[in-house]
Amino acid sequence: MTVSPTSLPAPAVSRQRVRARWALVALPLVLLAAVVFAVGTGAVHISPAQVVSILLAPLGVPALAAYEEQQAAVLHAIRLPRVVLGLLVGAGLAVAGTAMQGLFRNPLADPGLLGISSGAGLAAAMSVVLGIHLFGTYTLPVMAFLGSVVSTAVIYALAQERGQMNVATMLLAGIAVNALCGAGTGLMTYLATDEQLRSITFWQLGSLGGATWPAVLSAAPLLLVGVLGLPLLARALNALTLGESNAAHLGIPVTAVKWAVVGLVALSVGAGVAVAGTIGFVGLVVPHLMRLLTGPNHATLLPASALAGATLLVLADLLARTIVMPSELPIGIVTALLGAPFFLYLLRQGRKGGRL
Amino acid sequence: MYKNFKTALVLSLALLPAASAASVQGADGVTVNVTNPKRVVALNGTTVELIYRLGKQNTVVGTDVTGTYPANKIPSVGHWAQLPAEGIISLKPDLVIGTADNFATPKNATLVQQLRGAGVKVLVLPATDTGGLDGVKTRLNLLSQVYGVPSAANALTRSFDTTLAAVKANRPKVAPRVIFLYAHSPSDASIYGTEGGANELIELAGGRNVAPFKDVKPLTPEALVAMNPDAIIMLDRGLASVGGLEGALKMPGVAQTNAGKNKRIYTVDNSIRWIGPRLPEFALKLAREWKKDFAR
């Protein structure tokens, strides 16, 4: 559970404020370093000087180092969109996770609870197995996105009580709809041919390997709406930690805020899942890590989570595409392998310090 | 002088196909211009196998996880359903050769765009799961154009036809009723239906596939008993995974079939799901075994 700042002794609060300020300075720099490192590393060797030369070439800057045409093509057409996609999806997943934990006042909440991943999974499996080709090459991502929006809307509708959204009912509805979607996906995998089964499995493990500029540009607006929009709700989420009625007394339009959070989370995570498959653990681990670092104030927590999530996914993808070169691992495996042990460590540390 | 001229003529004729650029149209309609490629990434095991048969194995610098026959040390770029664009490009290929079924997964459809976007030539051969031996010949001919070695392809096609004639001569008089059982473990097995490589093999070898469906379905013991095959074909790997013949006979339903009662379980190489150049050999092996076992 989050701890309200007032219950902490004064020195701890000021120490946390200093740390939060430092975090917002340091995290963008760490992200920048991760991006530079990720852009310059990969199966095709491109040296830092060549990266700079290729990126500056359209501006008419003479090349610092000679490079081949193909290196430029790889950088522009394959590696850059991939890093940008990792950055956006990571930020989207992490900021959505943070907002969900704030909304539910529960550290176990993550975007998966809303049925986003399971709805997307079911729709993706259906498009693969039933051979739906409504949107050409983009059928699978579009279907996945529609699936996530539909399942979120269903859970949301089920959680309505006399015009109010009941968060506890939403949790239960989420569990039930997730189970239903899981069964539907199971049915699809049962009907699938061997080839289709492998497509579904790899999609469920997540990958940024399909990143092309059109794919990135189609998902970017939705992801950005979440990443930039959710931090605007920081004050309301802070007030909600006191409970809904207290927040309402503070003048927060509670119902509208709940709508906004769920809508923004569904948009950004749905778009992320659609282009990159289901990538676990980012939405769960990053908010915890950032809460330890910056404290529970959403005004710093949300942007910090976005930056850390972006960094984490860019680096996880770098690992995924380099450790078994020239092959690559699904990124969901990397985030879970890194995330789960780290999460367990945090849990034990938190228990000792009485924080989680 | 005349002799030298003749030698030069013969030499230049011999070098002609290798030196001139070939325009090869792939199964996706995209034409690829190739001149004697030196570095080829060959996706799908049957492509690797065909290139070996053409004597051009030294050009193969990368393959996917299925490219394991003949035994080789070619680097793998990963699972065929999830291939990495940059990993393939890092092998600096002159040409990437895949098959239509290779690129049918949504992820790999983008891969083709990415590779071509990065200036890599991609030749898409017809699918490996349909078309039987004729499909193999089509792919072989396309590859022989790529490498400029039509004579090698012709020799190979003739050897296919010779083996095929032997298969026909050795088929059992009465077609046995056959099931292709694809097992991962004693408790997890599927039956291959009347489409794809397994079915081609059964029919070529003179059997009758009695699976009452087209695609792949999980094994249900009762359905197996109802189909009551005379013969069961398994992959080498599949038979090993259930614990050999003894283990296979203990699988639910197997012991109650004619095949189980008479221990008529036959194995084929693991790569049969993709129809490749060894299809006639596999068929000949099965045909001979069936002719012996089902002589009535």
Automatic annotation (TrEMBL), chain A:
TM region(s), chain numbering: 20-39, 51-67, 79-100, 112-132, 138-159, 171-192, 212-234, 271-289, 301-323, 329-347
Keyword vocabulary terms for this entry: Cell membrane, Membrane, Transmembrane, Transmembrane helix, Transport
Main localization, broad class: membrane
Compartments it resides in: Cell membrane
GO molecular function, one term: transmembrane transporter activity
Protein's UniProt keywords contain Cell membrane: yes
Membrane topology recorded in Swiss-Prot or TrEMBL: Multi-pass membrane protein
GO biological process per UniProt: siderophore-iron import into cell
InterPro entries cross-referenced by the UniProt entry: ABC_BtuC-like, ABC_transptr_permease_BtuC
One cellular component term from this protein's GO annotations in UniProt: plasma membrane
Superkingdom of the source species: Bacteria
PANTHER family hit by this protein: ABC TRANSPORTER PERMEASE PROTEIN MJ0876-RELATED (PTHR30472:SF25), FERRIC ENTEROBACTIN TRANSPORT SYSTEM PERMEASE PROTEIN (PTHR30472)
Protein family membership: Belongs to the binding-protein-dependent transport system permease family. FecCD subfamily.
Protein name as catalogued: Iron ABC transporter permease
TrEMBL record, chain B:
UniProt keyword ATP-binding present: no
Entry-linked CDD domains: HutB
Ranges where the Fe/B12 periplasmic-binding domain occurs: 39-296
Signal peptide per UniProt: 1-26
SUPFAM superfamilies according to UniProt: Helical backbone' metal receptor
Keyword terms, alphabetized: Signal
Superkingdom assignment: Bacteria
Keyword Cell wall biogenesis/degradation tagged: no
Name assigned to this protein: Hemin ABC transporter substrate-binding protein
Species of origin: Deinococcus metallilatus
